[in-house]
Amino acid sequence: SPQAAPALERTAAEAGRALLEAVRAEVPEYSDSGNPDVLPGLARHGEDHVREILRLVAGGEPGDFAFLREHAHLRAEQRFPLEFILHAYRCGHRTLTRWLREAAQATAPEALE
């Protein structure tokens, strides 16, 4: 809800860090890839997700999600296995869902009981 926007803004950087940490913990192939661009790219992609959520919660219209296509294209060029990419998305979804839920609870805890 738009009421959760301030709580989300306050914790956006933390959510981005949590997303990166979750993927690194659950998908070691990112850290083990040997490609120095993989982890910084993963961090940027997580930040892109956080920014998009903030934009949508603030009332923005759903976008074309070009950042997803760009990331997929990059990973394909790097020949990064799809299995690990999908696992990273699952980790990210769990992390971002938790972030959204916590912000909603902080805003209107009775709505989630």
Termini separation comes to 16 Å
Quantity of strands, as a count: 0
What percent of residues are in strands? under 5%
What series of H and E elements makes up the topology?
A: HHHHH
What percentage of residues falls in helices of 4 or more residues? over 70%
Shape by Cα distribution: globular
Distinct helical segment count: 5
The SS-based structural class is: mainly alpha
Q: Note the quaternary state here.
A: single chain
Largest sheet: none
Number of domains: 1
Mean pLDDT: 91
* Poorly predicted tracts of residues: none
Radius of gyration equals: 15 Å
Task: Give a short overview.
The chain has helices at residues 5-26, 29-32, 38-57, 66-77, 82-107. The chain is mostly helical and 113 residues long. The two termini are 16 Å apart.
Describe the structure.
The two termini are 16 Å apart. This protein has one domain (2-112). It has helices spanning 5-26, 29-32, 38-57, 66-77, 82-107. By secondary structure, it is mainly alpha-helical. It is globular, with a radius of gyration of 15 Å. The chain is built from five helices and no strands. The longest helix is centred in the last third of the chain and has 26 residues, at 82-107.
